[in-house]
Design brief:
One of its GO terms (molecular function) is protein histidine kinase activity. This protein has 17 helices and 17 strands. By secondary structure, it is an alpha+beta fold.
Length: 589
Amino acid sequence: MNLFKRVRIDRLFFGSFASFLSILLLVFTWISYSTTSKELANTSSYYQQDMLNELNKQIDIQLKSIEQMSLAASRNMNTIGYDPFEKDPFELFHRRDDMLRMLASITYSTTMVQSIYLYIDNPTKTDPQAPVQILDMAHVREESWYPEIEKLDFTWVGERTLPTNKGPQQFISFARKLYNNSDKYYGLLMLNVKATAIEGLVRGGSAGKEKNRLLLDASGRTIATIGKPTLSENDLGLINSKENASNYIHLPVNQDHGEGALLVWSKVRSDWMLIEITPWNEIVHGSIRLAYILVSVGLTAIFITAFFTLFLSRQFTKPIRLLLSRMGRVPAAGAVVDLPTDYENEFGSLFNGYRRQMERIEELLKSLQSQHKRKREAEILALQAMINPHFLYNTLDQLNWIAIDSGQEKISTIVSLMGKMFRIGLSNGETVIPIRDELTHVECYLQIQKIRWGERLTYSMDIEEDLKDLYISRLTIQPFVENAFIHGFHGRRTGEVNVSLKRKEYELEIIIRDNGVGLKTDWASPKPRKTGGYGVRNVMDRIAAYFGEPYGVTLRNREEGGTEVVLLLPILHNKTELEDALHVESTYY
């Protein structure tokens, strides 16, 4: 089914335009959200990687110092010669005190190490408040992390709770196996580092919202955390699959990370891996807000555009509906009269064409009556042409009074103007008349046309006052003004005429301009039949007969549209100058 053939034009126009704008808004919003969220993720990961790399270096330095302390302590214990297998009790006690003082000095030298535990078999009792404790090896073998130390000589142990004089606290410990001078394994040395100190390194002094970070050792075991990070085995596998020491990945929606997360890690030149997990909704918060703004603005724009489109569609369909309604009233009388006349686009052409077509139909229906009427009018006009001019004046005066009595003001005005035109046109047989009278004759004709055209016709006359007392051949200007209406404004709804007179040294320049259709390419060619235009030709021939070169008439098209007529005449101060200026070389007359 073709909607363009079945749906009303206004609904189709409104619906298609609104749908197009809605789809365009959704596409634009999605592209903006995808682009901005990707750029935000790239930017965030870039800065997070730089920060994690710096933190990783600092953590590596601090934790390596703890490892070096542990190594130095184990070597000093061998130097002191402490050996729990020593058989001499006095010697064992003496070396035990030296060893305790040496280990206690480590806790005093750094604030990170809170205490040191020495695990051996059959330990001797120590002060529970002392920074160095000697504990039973049997206890440590029960710890969950102990199997790791059995495979290695040293390792880090994740967060665990230990008793202190201030109550239980969280610690991160570094464990190292101890061997005597005979290379016999006899115990385990653990340096207990404050968890808050390690977490402070992991946090990096960041203020504001708590970060979700993890510190993993080389084997992937969690050593310290801040926030509430969650890292699954799959996530860790994704990290290990990447070749870059520092990188990021976008974790999709899953049970561990909810709506997804941005996972950024750093393991540059160290045994540690620092990981930061940022919820994806925090990354794209700005993009979501931008998307909401775009949607809100877009919906508002669609709402406004919908009203505009509805108004616009009605403007397009209103003339069509009007024409359809008038077509339904045909052949009723006056069905076409009230069609709008102010349209100048395709609708105006449609109305004019339909109006002309219906007028022709009416003419065909009334052809016999119209022909009879035109015949009688022609007979009357022929009789009137033979009436004495004075009788014609009197008759026009009578018609004027009758029109006034009947309230026909327009007819009265037209009759009055026609009488004035006839008087000036005849001029008691005078060939030359003042320019003032010639302009009055032209203005009477323009006023008659103004009554016919109404506001659709504008005219102006630009004449210097001193030129009105000069003389001109009778009926020189009016034929060109009349020609503008007959030919220039034919088939047009509006018109504009301008008449101007200027003095050019010893010559008079008369310019008649109109905004009509302009001159046809063959306007100067002789016509095969009687088509009018005798008045214009008559003026041109009279000027040639009276004055010759360089005086005459020039017709040309205007660049802005229409015709411009330029009459170049000599200046005549009185009637007798015309006889002196007669150009006898012309044999036309």
